[in-house]
Amino acid sequence: MDKVMLLLSVLSLGVSCQPINDNQRLFSIAVSRVQHLHLLAQRLFSDFESSLQTEEQRQLNKIFLQDFCNSDYISSPIDKHETQRSSVLQLLSISYRLVESWEFPSRSLVGGSSPRNQISPKLSELRTGILILIRANQDGTETFNDNATVQLAPYGNYYQSLGADESLRRTYELLACFKKDMHKVDTYLTVAKCRLSTEANCTL
């Protein structure tokens, strides 16, 4: 009888662990994808900065520090402590909104090189993956409405033909904000994934 109970316990444990393992696998895929985008964003921004004169870099950096990225209007943790206090669903939802906010601006990043042309499709794949994770991690106490699209104003002069100086500023702003937002999503998804492992240290 004891052997039967032990066998049932093992089988039950195997069944209950399966969704967790699937969740971890999906998280690993999502984290891998956003890390690729984050590294790509860093490389594109670094390459663009390297093409500028020292004074151009200084002026653009000064302007950017006084400006906001559009995604700053998306409510998100203000520091690492608030990030760690956020639930898995909150981190996933914020990540989804951040990725979604780049659906149109990312089109301005396309062209000139193969890595740039990967951005839009990889963002779309990441967005779909995060949505699957959101649906898998809703527990009834928290819900997410994926139809509630955040309406953000386009980046400055996004739809206008620009002079050389304004075009330079817009490109700098887009690349800097893209790098900043991919860093956020990378952090949020990594922390959310870590929460699935009780043995992991999720400190930032």
Description:
The structure is a single chain. The chain is mostly helical and 204 residues long. The protein contains six helices and no strands. The protein has helices at residues 2-50, 54-66, 80-85, 88-100, 114-136, 164-194. Helix 1 (2-50) packs antiparallel against helix 5. The protein is elongated, with a radius of gyration of 21 Å.
List the helices and strands and how they pair.
Blueprint: H1 2-50, H2 54-66, H3 80-85, H4 88-100, H5 114-136, H6 164-194
Helix pairs in contact: 1-5, 1-6, 4-5, 4-6
Shape: elongated
Order of helices and strands: HHHHHH
Q: Whole-number radius of gyration?
A: 21 Å
As residue ranges, the low-confidence spans are 3-17, 156-162
Helix content: 55-70%
Number of continuous helical runs: 6
Strand content: under 5%
Distance between the termini: 48 Å
* Total beta strand runs: 0
Sheet of most strands: none
The SS-based structural class is mainly alpha
Mean pLDDT: 78
Tags for this model:
204 residues; mainly alpha; 6 helices; 66% helix; 0% strand; elongated; disordered N terminus
Q: In a nutshell, what does this entry contain?
A:
With 204 residues, the protein is mainly α. It has helices at 2-50, 54-66, 80-85, 88-100, 114-136, 164-194. It is elongated.
